[in-house]
Amino acid sequence: MTQIYFHEGDLPASVHFSGSVAVDTETMGLQMRRDRLCLVQLGDGKGNCHIVRFQKGRYDAPNLKALLADSSVLKIFQYARFDVAALSLYLGVSCAPVYCTKIASKIARTNAPSHSLKTLCEQLLGVELEKEQQCSDWGAETLSEEQLKYAANDVLYLHALKEKLDALLAREGRTTYAQSCFDFLPHVAELDLAGFDCETLFTH
Ligand code: MN
Question: What pLDDT, in 10s, does the model give residues 100-114?
C-alpha cells in the first residue's frame, strides 16, 4: 500500500530513514541552472513516499540536507547524475554515498536496448509505469493528486530494482565496475556543474 506524505520546505525532523533511501527530484525543466528545483521525493522501499516541495529561492532545508549528506544512508537514484547535480546546485549538499539504477543496468544488462525507469520496472519487476506527468508544471501553487502520485512513483520501485540489479551484477562479476561508477558519480555531477564535458573528458 502506497502512502504519500507532502511537506512544505523541508522534511520534518521526525522522519528518519535507515540504511538506504530512494531519491528523485522534479525541476521546472532539464536546464538545471534555468529550471529551478521544485520537488524532492524520498522513498523507504516499503511503500512510503515523502515529497518535499520548495518555493522559488527558498532552499533552506536542514533536515533534508542532513539526510542527503549522511554517509550511513545510501541514496538510490535512477539517473543520479542529474539529481545529484541539482541537489548540489540548489541545496548545496554533497550527496553520498549514491547508487544509480540506470548505471547498474547499463553495466549488468548489456543486452538490453533501454535502461529507462519505465523499461526497468517492466522488465525486472513486471510493473507498468505511467509517464504522463513527466512534463507537468512542478512549480504550480497546488499540485494535483495525479502529479503527487506520479512523483511518488519515481521512487517507489528503486529499492526493488536495486535488489534485482545487484543480483545481476553479482552473477556477471561486475559489481566492482558498478561501484566504481557510483563512487565517481558525485564528481561527475560537480564536473557537469563546473562546465566540463564529461563525454569528451575521457576520450583522446
Ligand atoms: Mn522524476
Answer: 999 999 999 999 999
CA of 173 to the centre of ligand 1 (A): 30
- Kindly give the distance from the C-alpha atom of residue 41 to the centroid of ligand 1, in angstroms, as a whole number: 8
CA distances from 157 to 46, 88, 172 (A): 9, 24, 23
Helix axes 175-193, 101-108, angle to 10 degrees: 130
The pTM of the full predicted model, rounded to 2 decimals, is 0.96
User: Is omega for the bond preceding 113 within 30 degrees of 0, making it cis?
Assistant: no
Q: How far is CA 49 from CA 24, 85, 182, in A?
A: 11, 22, 23
Pick the CATH number of 3-198 from 3.30.420.10, 1.10.490.10, 3.30.230.70, 3.90.1330.10: 3.30.420.10
Q: What's the 203 CA to ligand 1 centre distance in angstroms?
A: 31
**Under 8 Å between Cβ of 123 and 112:** yes
- Tell me how far apart the alpha carbons of residues 183 and 174 are, in angstroms, rounded to a whole number: 15
